[in-house]
Design a protein that fits this description.
The structure is a single chain. It is built from eleven helices and four strands. It is α/β, with parallel strands linked by helices. It has a single domain, classed as 3-Layer(aba) Sandwich (Rossmann fold). Strands 1-2-3-4 form a four-stranded parallel beta sheet, with helices on both faces. Helix 2 links the parallel strand 1 and strand 2. Helix 1 crosses helix 2 and helix 5 crosses helix 6. The longest helix has 15 residues. The chain starts with a helix and ends with a helix.
Length: 220
């Protein structure tokens, strides 16, 4: 909800009434959320690596997907929280290494990115984002409650949507984004990139850019 609210505020400051939105993972969820709570501000969306969740509701995935979400369950126990806090870089590293086929990043890229995992707000934001999904006791910012209530009433997306899935995604498995056409009333296309993992924008940038460009031009 915070990401979606920030996006609307940014559009207001920039003076844009309606724009297309492209997002990966958390960004994809923000795109779906914007399309749900502020469809008048969104002309089209492209969601990468993450399927749609009607009403913004988190439900327990099937066991195969739950196994891939080990890093989320780890953060639900105090010892796991302590482990992540003590070494957030190692925590992120194992995810980078396991979510996609080898070779999609090099050591210089990881070292440059890893500095952000040491930011003082990285840990609380990460913990809250995941723990609030299934822990009713996890505090949420009341400023976003009206948006959350609005999203809870939205089952179908009324914005043209492109969904791009990596066929070798080992975080959000391809099966988790299958058969969702019924939730989209303004057009929906799902593309699966064979051999590509959780980061299509890094692993197949040209293919992704062409697909997104084609989608947005069609909606123009």
């Amino acid at each position: 909800m915070a990401l979606a609210a920030d996006a609307v505020d940014l559009l207001d400051v920039l003076g844009h009434d309606r724009v297309p939105v492209v997002g990966h993972d958390w960004g994809a969820r923000a795109a779906y959320t914007l399309a749900g709570v502020a469809p008048e501000r969104v002309s089209a969306i492209a969601a990468v690596a993450l399927g749609y969740q009607p009403r913004g509701k988190f439900t327990m995935p099937r066991f195969e997907q739950a196994r891939a979400f080990w890093y989320q369950w780890l953060m639900y126990v105090d010892a796991g929280v302590q482990a992540v806090a003590s070494d957030p870089i190692a925590f992120a590293r194992i995810q980078w290494e396991s979510w996609s086929p080898p070779g999609w990043f090099d050591e210089d890229e990881f070292r440059a990115t890893a500095r952000s995992f040491l930011n003082e707000d990285w840990l609380p934001i990460t913990l809250q984002a995941y723990r609030s999904r299934f822990l009713a006791t996890e505090p949420c910012d009341p400023r976003y409650e009206p948006l959350a209530q609005r999203l809870a009433q939205v089952e179908r997306v009324d914005v043209p949507t492109l969904m791009i899935q990596g066929g070798a995604d080992r975080c959000d498995e391809p099966a988790s984004s299958e058969n969702q056409e019924r939730f989209f009333t303004a057009g929906y296309q799902r593309l699966v990139f064979d051999g590509i993992g959780h980061f299509p924008h890094r692993e197949a940038p040209d293919e992704l850019a062409l697909a997104v460009d084609r989608h947005l031009r069609t909606m123009a």
